[in-house]
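Give me structure tokens for this 130-residue protein.
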Amino acid sequence: MSELSRLDTRQHQLHNQALIQITVLLYQIDGKVTLTEQDYLDELLQDMAWHSGISKDAFVTDAIHQAREAIDGGTAPDYIRSLSDELNIDAARSLEVAMAITKVDGERSEKEVELLALLANRVLARGLVA
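Here you go.
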């Protein structure tokens, strides 16, 4: 594998991990996890390439734990900001997934709308303009 393709694979993996983390946070932020949200995550995971020593399932379990800590501690905006570099690897895809997971259950809660605004207007702004 060439150095460039290794870098591309690494960047892709980092982006996929951040997508999982943001998706898990956004489906949990309103305090209720619906079957349609879970189905969306399952479909996202199924289609996702994975190049890590950690299994996808183990990563998701850890992402759930991290999201719960951020939500319970009131630090969800900071958690999203911490994923900025990885989400901006493909900002358009990141926003697409965030919009989809917050709408898949039929409505966006006030908390979901707030985090989407932060994501679109602050975290992903440079990646979406570029």
